[in-house]
Amino acid sequence: MLTPNPSTTGRGEMTVTPSPSTTTGQGEIVLTPSTSSGHRPGPSPTGKGELVFTPKPSPTGQGEATPISDPDPTGQGEICAGKVCVLEAAFPFQRPIQPPGTDTVDPTYRYGSTQNGEREVHHGVEFINKAGVPVYAVADGVVEFAGEDEQVSLATKRGFYGKVIILKHKLRRLELPLYSIYGHVLKILVQKGETVRQGQQIGEVGLGGVAAGTHLHFEVRYGENDYHATRNPELWLPPALPHSGVLIGRLLNSQGECLMLENMVLEPMGIDDAVLKRRYFATYEDPEMRCLPPWQESFGINDLPAGQYRLSFIYTKPENLEFKVIAGKVTYLNLRLP
Question: Which of 66, 102, 308, 311 has the least C-beta neighbours within 10 A?
């Protein structure tokens, strides 16, 4: 658990000191807010597989990481009260593909995107690999489904995934269950009702259903096993690339409504080939996918090389925001636009 230090500013701010349990690698860290922030400390966690939201001071000086509550399935908690927060995160899942397989997601068809209008809104991410590459359970769980989906609709239609595995996970201090989905597999190595462990091989990458090439389609479903209950899988996985971090953005208008923004540009700063390394993206294109618990985000990107960045977009006028991405941490942008 996290032990709050007394506020030294008189403004109800908080610093946090990890207890020894935070170094076990078990995902046991949970924020315990200071009473000066208006929150009451939560109970000490005893198990593993928990989300972590540990505020740290913003390295840019543009926003402070303020106290937040434990992960809140109702979505009522405020994750970042400033513009920029840097958060520690003990991600509950491991990657479903491990080296020497390709363990990074396809950047051309991220969660919530349509590949420039060419495809339907993506409810998962793709790990592009050759057929036969091992697929691993991302966390301890129970097999909810394992087989062909020709006779049952698990997405928008029957036969969407081909051979598919669905695992149900129960994480401590997260009341709602999580489900991980592994689609287009070649071989299934588990059966319904079986208990599996994190890192256990459960299948192999294949080609089936609506897949256009050999890859693993990976989804995370929050609270219920339903295609419309998905969340961005990148936000549940630790960074895979060395010296990389996670960027999460929440964009609201003056009434607190979640915005759709296109043509956002993310540019690294202070490097010679910055223009060549720009990333162009949008918020999640389906409004039903934006600003949902627990992260309440409009977009999220993992495996960003650590460093200084500038985010540019146009709302009512051109907007720019500079911030740092720090290796192994989450940079959270909380933007309210006039």
Answer: 308
